[in-house]
Amino acid sequence: SRAIKTNQDLLPETPWTHIFYNDFWGTLLTHSGSHKSYRPLCTLSFRLNHAVGGMDPWGYHLVNVLLHAAVTGLFTNFSRILFGDGYWTLIAGLLFASHPIHTEAVAGIVGRADIGACLFFLLSLMCYVKHCSTRGSSLSTWGWILGAGLCAGCSMLWKEQGVTVLAISAVYDIFVFHRLKMRQIIPALYKRKNLTLFFSIGLLTSWGTALLGIRLYWMGNKPPSFSNSDNPAADSDSFLTRTLTFFYLPTKNLWLLLCPDTLSFDWSMDAVPLLKAVSDWRNLHTVAFYAGLLLLAYFSLKGSSNERECNGRTVMNGKQNANGHSCHSEMENKTLEVKSSFASKEENGIKKHEMQKLQLPSTENIVILSLSLLIVPFVPATNLFFYVGFVIAERVLYVPSMGFCLLVTVGVRALYVKAQKRFLKNLVFCSTAALIVFYGLKTVVRNGDWQNEEMLYRSGIKVNPAKAWGNLGNVLKSQSKISEAESAYRNALYYRSNMADMLYNLGLLLQENSRFSEALHYYKLAIGSRPTLASAYLNTGIILMNQGKTEEARRTFLKCSEIPDENLKDPHAHKSSVTSCLYNLGKLFHEQGHYEDALTVYKEAIQKMPRQFAPQSLYNMMGEAYMRMSRLPEAERWYVESLRSKSDHIPAHLTYGKLLALTGRKSEAEKYFVKAIQLDPTKGNCYMHYGKFKID
User: Fold this and answer.
1) Residue 78, φ and ψ in degrees, nearest 5
2) Is it the case that residue 348 has pLDDT exceeding 60?
3) Which are the contacts of 20, defined by CB distance < 8 A and separation ≥ 6?
4) Are 468 and 266 within 8 A, CB to CB?
5) How far is CA 281 from CA 243, 247, 272, in A?
6) Residue 672 has pLDDT above 60, yes or no
7) Cβ atoms within 10 Å, residue 316
8) How far, rounded to the nearest angstrom, does the alpha carbon of residue 386 sit from its chain's CA centroid?
9) Which of 424, 514, 540, 567 is deepest in the core (most CB within 10 A)?
10) How far is CA 508 from CA 454, 457, 542, in A?
């Protein structure tokens, strides 16, 4: 809702340049309550969607699906560089296309940020691959590295993690294109022929540092702040709890990639219980995860000196195997007549970069790149450098899943090569096909959960019952299923009794059903849980005012008007509630005959009023106050302002008609009375005022 429905940056009357100063939710980036999620290109795409189709969700979903299709195509094309033409590239592409973890990013509109970032991530990486292949032989190489830098910047402007493509490009250059081992990197610094390599790495480092510096400066040099329910581990006072939980979370994320059986729209609050002791059995998962990761990285970086697999065929010391297959793709074998080993090619005068273009990366090279692609884009979500506003977010795994798909593919290929018997080879191949089918079926099932809000929230009850029941209550309430909605809210509070939003929502439901004493009870609990919840003060004041407790209502409205909007997640909604409080306080003074006090409060409301606030009632009451004080010119001005802000505002038609009649402009006054009746022929109040006008 905040990213699209109530985001003022999507509206045509808002200057489009505001997108570059506000966060993803439309809040000024330097505001203390800003989420600091700076994604202007994603917001701009939402604005274009809004300009074409308004709030029709079909167009938004279409763009997401098309972007995912484009990303899948680019990823498959990149896989060809690693696996060549053939089944392995197809397998990598199908794994990515069908993976269920992508459902949230594609089916959820706000997930477009991750898809767009991934699109430019791959474009940047492909540009850098072109730069590597043309380096030293063509001037176009500098155009390619410029394109890589620009696409990396665009990827970061879609979502923050996009900047990590620069690190992946460096890994590709060192370990895949140049095929260096860890022990060879330091000696390579002293070789003159590697100057271009380290110059390229230097450019990547400099550009990445510049992008991060600008990003930090643009968001006010301050990290975002989040509520304890968003990321409970970050709010824990125990260093041990924070450490164990933060080390465990990557393990949980990898499991979601490997076995996406249980998925949820929200993993905040207690969806992943904190690890508070070393004796927690989940620490075994953590140890196994990091041990496996380190071993895989070690053996890949160490490399094999005798043997390597190449696209499903074994190559010994760079020579062909017994079947006569060399380490080239089929297309390259057709276009180039390769009749000797790589050493003899160099002797014949073929340039080194051309040789590298012929030779596909080894398994070790691909594993290093895959691990980097899996880990590095995920690092911003690990709480390593700053706390994030979630425990787990499936959409965040969209980019890292590329590394996972490559890792699975290269692992399957290695098993296929090692298998000696045809039966075992077929078993490996069929098992991989079955995995793709199962992933695809799970994606179809999970996509069904995203068909509507009710199904989505019901699917999340087993993972995050407090959040799921609370959101489900909102949906049921919108469907006029009042008793079911009340039950859902109470279920949410059963799991987490201090949720201010749920306490407020339950109070609002009770208020709308005339259960005022119960509503007041829950509003007070909501205020106790979150003293800055202005909407709870507003509705408390309204109930007290209607019950004739004017002094209590006055104090409540005044207290609400004094709450600052600092460090609030949604300052726009807060300002709207504060403005409404001041409006109702002004009405209270007006009903008591304190018109000067009412005008003072109304003027304060106008000063604090946010852009999205509908001001017609406030302007009309300003006119009413001036009317009671016999200051007719000022009254007329505010009646006109009310009608200008909302031309079908019936109270303003009636009050302005009364003023016109009072000043002798009866024919003009009659038009406003008639217009009010036309706007709502069922409203008896309009006929009453028109009848009085006729009698007079």
Assistant:
1) -65, -35
2) no
3) 40
4) yes
5) 15, 14, 14
6) yes
7) 11
8) 17
9) 540
10) 20, 21, 12
Average pLDDT estimate for 75-96? 94
**How many CB atoms are closer than 10 A to CB 268?**
22
User: Among positive and negative, which fits the CA dihedral 451, 454, 459, 464?
Assistant: positive
Q: Could you tell me what percent of the chain has a pLDDT over 90?
A: 64
C-alpha closest to that of 357 among 337, 328, 330 = 328
According to DSSP, residue 340 is labeled S
Compute the CA torsion angle 187, 191, 197, 200 (nearest 10 deg): 100
Beta bridge partners of 22: 28
pTM of the full structure: 0.84
Token pair 């030779």 in the structure block, residue: 359
Q: What is the CATH number of domain 615-695?
A: 1.25.40.10
Instruction: Identify the pLDDT of residue 303.
Output: 62
From CA 696, how far away is CA 693, in angstroms rounded? 5
For the chain, the structural domain boundaries read 549-613, 615-695
pLDDT of the residue at 316? 41
Contact partners, residue 244, CB within 8 Å, separation at least 6: 275, 276, 277, 278, 280, 283, 286
Q: Tell me the CATH class for 549-613.
A: mainly alpha
On the question of a common fold for 549-613 and 615-695, the answer reads yes
Which range among 105-119, 151-165, 610-624 shows the weakest confidence by mean pLDDT?
Answer: 610-624
Distance of CA 268 to the CA centre of its chain: 14
In 3-state terms the chain splits into helix, strand, coil percentages (rounded to 5) of 70, 0, 30
